[in-house]
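hey can u run this one w/ zinc ion bound, need the structure tokens asap thx
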Amino acid sequence: MAAFDPKEFAVPRERARVLVAGAGGLGSPALAALASSGVGVIGVADSDVVDLSNLHRQVIHVTAGVGLPKTASAEEFLKRSGFGGAVLTFQTRLDTGNIMEVVSEFDVVVDACDTFRSKFMLNDACVLAGRPFVHAGVLQFEGQIMTIYPERTACLRCLFESPPPPGSVPTCQEAGVLGAAAGVLGAIQAAEALKVLDGKKTTLSDRVVAFDARHMSFRTVPVSRDPGCPVCGTKPRIDSMEDANYPPEACD
Amino acid sequence: MPLRDDQIRRYARQLVMRDFTGAAQECLLKSRVLVYGEGPPMDLCVLYLAAAGVGDIHLSGVRPSVLDLIWRAAALNPDCRVHEGGRGLRPDYVIDFAQDAGPGAARRAAGALRAGLPYLKVLRAAGAAIMKRWREGDPCPGCVLNAAGLKQTDLLNPGETSVSGPAAAAFATLELAGLGVPTHNALLMDADKGAYRELAATPLPECIMCAELADGR
Ligand SMILES: [Zn+2]
Ligand SMILES: [Zn+2]
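ok here u go:
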């Protein structure tokens, strides 16, 4: 693949629009870091309400806010933190019908959602809309992160053609997660989103960084685009958002 | 004391993990952590410790927004109490976010080691963070900083990454819950350069601070 200049995707901070898709375990540290970054607009998308079992890891929410929409709670957090820009909230489930419209409003997208279905949907929408995004996932003590420049660097589907079959991988609810491990990944996601906006060459693109809190170790694995990728390959099978490409999760 | 129903619900996602037993949670709830320093990563570290259920967090060091942090931690988890000042305290764990790799830091490390306390140090410079859990015979904070190719003056420009906050909280939470010491190796988390790896650090010859740390037992 020809080299590309990350400056293509650069946007001055004060004009920059960042979407954090998910205001949970990954979204909390990402939003906490973005609050003081000087970006112009922060978008927060989440359809859930704050639950008591969220609070061991979702540190932007508060006990008194249990039952409130996470988007409202996140907006409250940003305001209290002195975030001077605009906050756009999407208290809705991102689905094939609305996701293209939402991600197209932003310059960079942070994948802080918690299901494979949403992650693949976000991947495809960002690739199709030409928006750079920062993927991360976390379970128990481990997680991984990768930054994607659409049609320039490897996307999620270049590595995994489709979401794992429902039930084959445990969810956070079943397997648990160390709150601060999600914190590490989310904080790195915010740093990556800012590097994308700043046009830096040092993003975690075409490489996956895996983190293991149990041993406090990081591992970097180089990856590359797959010409046969169903969404960013030479003959893409996915060219619009269709429900058939996103099987429902087992316990949605 | 057994966990209350609301605590079982609050900590459900960590209690469901193998090894993270009710007894581990009770250890956390009884633990006292002393935190030095200030700054956004330190604030985030305190919030993660509070969220995980650390019982008492003592903040040592002068910081303007301390009341806000105390309020936030209490609003997040009423099981955790955050206190201003740590004088005369006998903590179970020391986390040092002070931007100091000189004699002051070496003295705090030596003091903690002498008292048999876990000492976790975080330094931030130029968009990178270095984290290390000290033990006897380890090089001093200044020599570890040097191993990362950084100087004392680089500490004046920490950059904006906050990853060291949750990283330190993850480390301390695991150790306080009795799940072991994740590592004694120094870790480099350079968000600006996108480099996350272990750091090989050895004492510089004739380093006075290293000698002081070695005498600290
Ligand atoms: Zn692809
Ligand atoms: Zn030394």
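Chain A has one domain: 14-243. anyway lmk if its weird
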